[in-house]
Amino acid sequence: MANVQPKIKHRPFCFSVKGHVKMLRLALTVTSMTLFIIAQAPEPYIVITGFEVTVILFFILLYILRLDRLMKWLFWPLLDLTNSIITAVFLSVVAILAMQEKERRHLFYVGGSLCLTAVIVCCIDAFVVTKMMRTNLKRFLGIEFESKLSPAKDAYPETGPDAPQRPA
Description:
The protein contains 6 helices and no strands. By secondary structure, the protein is mainly alpha-helical. The protein has one domain (18-149).
């Protein structure tokens, strides 16, 4: 009998966890950039957030159009991970500097707070990307792994449909 690999069901990017995290990053960064523009922040704040918006849009379009599947000569998850780390560093610097202006310019402070939130979302994005990379590596190497869909099943074995019957 031939060794049959299980089919991997493809989920569209917009409905995946990775897609939701990227869209949240985009929304936070665009809102932060808009608040920096309204608050008349110094140009480096606007330029850094604008550049991050452009890069996030690039990755979203790349994944929506599935160009990562066509251009296999680049390892896109590693580029995505590198982008998440660099974005987190830049936006954390912007957030720290912007949040020092709490007393004088409130919109500037709110923009910094949104940058800090975007940093947290970048870290979540990096975690999602590395988890996908680890899963794909295990699948490639043929290592058996078990994915738990519900941790509650293991925590409370006596309450599920497979629970042992109690004597009356």
